[in-house]
């Protein structure tokens, strides 16, 4: 079955530590996205990528970094510069066919907490 | 102000009731997406629509582009429908989605 796999499901970070969240898709989608979800707020876009080796900042990119070396993979690093990293992180992907609206497909998320 | 507003924020219904969740948006859009998020956190796509109405099983989604409003209806609700329902819009410029804060639905047996 095609889908999006996020790992780990739960992650704990110590102060001053960088952590990397994994996102892999086998849907052959061009676009991939990282969102952050906090209680009482809608999903907010951190970074997105429409093609390998290219990505754009979303609304809340500060303290995060990404890479897109392969079409299937879009890892997110939460750096020590992100002062409030505790949240639920969701990865999504979609096709980019021009002239049609393609839905986003989501992974099951990673819950990050501070130790 | 959020570009996407949902109502109600919380909804409790008896099994079998007809349920309506509303979504209003303030920007020009190319499409609107209804999503379902279960307690574990994973999100499932329900509908993507840009006009008219779509139906899948007991779920119906409608959109009125002129009024900038969409509704999600659930007929004959069941406890397994309990989840958070999220409305998202894709603006007609760019490829980003903007999300509402969600409607938490609980269906009581």
Number of helices of chain A: 0
Taking the sheet with the most strands of chain B, its summary is: 6 strands, mixed
**How do the helices and strands follow one another from N- to C-terminus of chain B?**
EEEEEEEEEEE
Rg of chain B to the nearest angstrom?
A: 13 Å
Fraction of residues in H or I helices of chain B: under 10%
**Largest β-sheet summary of chain A:** 7 strands, mixed
How would the global form of chain A be characterised?
Answer: globular
The low-pLDDT segments of chain A are none
State the low-pLDDT regions of chain B, or none.
Answer: none
Topology:
The complex is a heterodimer of chains A (115) and B (109).
Chain A: E1 4-7, E2 10-13, E3 19-25, E4 31-37, E5 44-51, E6 54-57, E7 64-66, E8 76-78, E9 87-94, E10 105-106, E11 110-114
Parallel strand pairs in A: 2-11
Antiparallel strand pairs in A: 1-3, 3-8, 4-5, 4-9, 5-6, 7-8, 9-10, 9-11
Chain B: E1 4-7, E2 10-14, E3 19-25, E4 29-37, E5 43-49, E6 52-56, E7 59-64, E8 69-74, E9 83-91, E10 97-99, E11 103-108
């Amino acid at each position: 079955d095609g889908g999006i796999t996020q790992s780990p499901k739960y992650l704990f970070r110590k102060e001053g530590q960088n952590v990397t969240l994994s996102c892999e898709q086998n849907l052959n989608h061009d676009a991939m996205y990282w969102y952050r979800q906090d209680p009482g707020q809608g999903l907010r876009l951190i970074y997105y990528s429409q093609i390998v080796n290219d990505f754009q900042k979303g609304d809340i990119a500060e303290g995060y970094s990404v890479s897109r070396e392969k079409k299937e993979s879009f890892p997110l690093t939460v750096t020590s510069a992100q002062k409030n990293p505790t949240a639920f992180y969701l990865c999504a992907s979609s096709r980019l066919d021009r002239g049609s609206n393609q839905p986003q497909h989501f992974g099951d998320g990673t819950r990050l907490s501070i130790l | 102000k959020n570009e996407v507003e949902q109502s109600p924020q919380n909804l409790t219904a008896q099994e079998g009731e007809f349920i309506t969740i509303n979504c209003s948006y303030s920007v020009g859009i190319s499409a609107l997406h209804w999503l379902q998020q279960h307690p574990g956190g994973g999100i499932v796509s329900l509908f993507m629509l840009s006009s008219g109405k779509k139906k899948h099983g007991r779920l119906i989604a409608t959109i009125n582009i002129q009024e900038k409003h969409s509704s999600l209806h659930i007929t004959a609700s069941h406890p397994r429908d309990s989840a958070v329902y999220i409305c998202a819009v894709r603006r007609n410029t760019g490829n980003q989605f903007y999300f509402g804060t969600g409607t938490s639905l609980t269906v009581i047996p």
